[in-house]
Amino acid sequence: MAEWYYDREGEQQGPVSEDTLHELIAAREVLPGNLVWTAGMEQWATAGETFNLPGAPDDSHVPPINAATAQGRSVAAAEDAQEAVMQRKTNGFAVACLAAGCLGILFSSAAFIAIAFGCVALVQIKRAPERYSGRGLAISGLVLAGLKIVSSVLLLGYALLSFVAH
């Protein structure tokens, strides 16, 4: 029976029998995007492509798995990356920043709270982008808070100038 080699996270594994390889595939330890090789194959190929491909008995030369070969894993890597993105959650401080920025239109003190929440949210999102989303919410809240503070300062300045002029 042919001996098979497979990759797991870019590391060459094996040799294993063809039956063992099928068991690993059934257990989803080897996915269709993982690379496999057996004697008689010119180069590594995905398990999905070679699922029923018989191997030749000569296993005297096993080509090394290298960076160029590992690039064939891009399909599996893309699926893993997509799953990681789908697991991100919206940062709570970003949501609070936007809410406080909206409240800042009515209450000036809420604008300062929005700035604090926005800064915390942006730092957390920058430190763990794979874990948090919500950068746009935080920026929107900061813009609203900034507009409220600037408009309040301008209105106060206008009132002072009007008072002094009379």
Features:
single chain; alpha+beta; Dna Ligase, domain 1; 4-stranded antiparallel β-sheet; 6 strands; 56% helix
Structure notes:
The protein is an alpha+beta fold and 166 residues long. It has helices at 18-26, 47-50, 67-70, 74-86, 92-103, 108-127, 135-165; strands spanning 3-8, 11-17, 35-38, 45-46, 89-90, 132-133. Helix 5 packs antiparallel against helix 6 (108-127), helix 5 (92-103) packs parallel to helix 7 and helix 6 packs antiparallel against helix 7. The chain has a four-stranded antiparallel beta sheet with strand order 2-1-3-4. The chain has a two-stranded parallel sheet with strand order 5-6. It folds into two domains: 3-86, GYF domain (Dna Ligase, domain 1, 2-Layer Sandwich), CATH 3.30.1490; 89-165. It is built from seven helices and six strands, in the order ββαββαααβααβα.
Write out the strand line-up for the largest beta sheet, numbering strands in chain order.
Answer: 2-1-3-4
**CATH topological fold name of the largest domain:** Dna Ligase, domain 1
* Structural class label: alpha+beta
CATH level 4 superfamily of the largest domain: GYF domain
CATH architecture of the largest domain: 2-Layer Sandwich
The first-to-last residue Cα distance is 102 Å
Number of strands: 6
What is the residue-mean pLDDT, rounded to a whole number? Answer: 83
Alpha plus pi helix count: 7
Strand content: 5-15%
Low-confidence stretches: 53-60
Report helical residue fraction: 55-70%
What is the gyration radius calculated from CA atoms? 29 Å
| Broad shape | rod-shaped
